[in-house]
Design brief:
216 residues, alpha+beta, Nucleoside Triphosphate Pyrophosphohydrolase, seven-stranded mixed β-sheet, four-stranded antiparallel β-sheet, 14 strands, globular, disordered N terminus
Length: 216
């Protein structure tokens, strides 16, 4: 269980909020061809039972004057899938959604009361397969405060905002290994402020870091 060194370009997300926003917008604007051919990340197909269910989450980057944060939720303990885990607002796609962006915005409004008018969608990250048989498309959006959150008591136990800089700094990413079907497999965690960010959410944040800071 070891953290990894800082990303070489980590300083790009440690400046003023306006500079960070410019970097994010530019990176997503330049990523069209790259994202069209991006490979899915997450669980290996041999660990997944049954067909994959399409889903989407909103990666909500809150534009605070003091710095950018990401809005995360902690799921309630009684849910069937990912109970008690830290997650992005999101869920399975409905036939009436029309797009992954529509799913992400709908779920964010239902789960935490985030209004679609407050969200500027800037792009997507590679899809992420979960061991619970979901194929999740992370939709990245810039969120304008104030946040008058209204948590869905059935699904959401809490909501909190770690700094984006903390979540994308590889020094805060802890790699774990676990044996599954006789093979050692890795997963990530990012402990912050009493919360343990791990599993699919941590995996998508690692994907976000790799997207922003691609290997040479």
């Amino acid at each position: 269980m070891n953290p990894v060194p800082a990303s070489p370009n980590a300083s790009l997300l440690s400046g003023k909020p306006d500079e960070m926003l410019l970097f994010l917008r530019r990176r997503f604007a330049e990523s069209g061809a790259q994202m069209a051919t991006a490979q899915a990340t997450g669980a290996d197909l041999d660990l997944i039972k049954g067909p994959l269910t399409p889903a989407a989450v909103l990666v909500p980057i809150v534009m605070r004057a003091t710095g950018l944060t990401i809005l995360l939720t902690q799921r309630t303990a009684h849910l069937r899938d990912h109970a008690g885990q830290v997650s992005f607002p999101g869920g399975r796609c409905e036939p009436t959604d029309g797009s992954f962006e529509a799913t992400a915005l709908r779920e964010a409004e239902e789960e935490v009361g985030l209004l679609p008018a407050q969200v500027e969608i800037i792009g997507r990250l590679p899809s992420f397969r979960t061991i619970t048989s979901f194929n999740v498309v992370p939709v990245v959006g810039l969120v304008s405060p104030p946040l008058n959150l209204k948590l869905d008591d059935f699904e959401v136990a809490d909501a909190f905002e770690p700094p984006l800089e903390f979540l994308l700094d590889a020094r805060n990413h802890v790699r774990h290994e676990v044996e599954a079907k006789g093979i050692m497999r890795a997963y990530w965690s990012m402990p912050w402020g009493g919360y343990n960010i791990w599993g699919a959410t941590a995996g998508m944040l690692i994907s976000f870091r790799d997207f922003l800071y691609p290997s040479p």
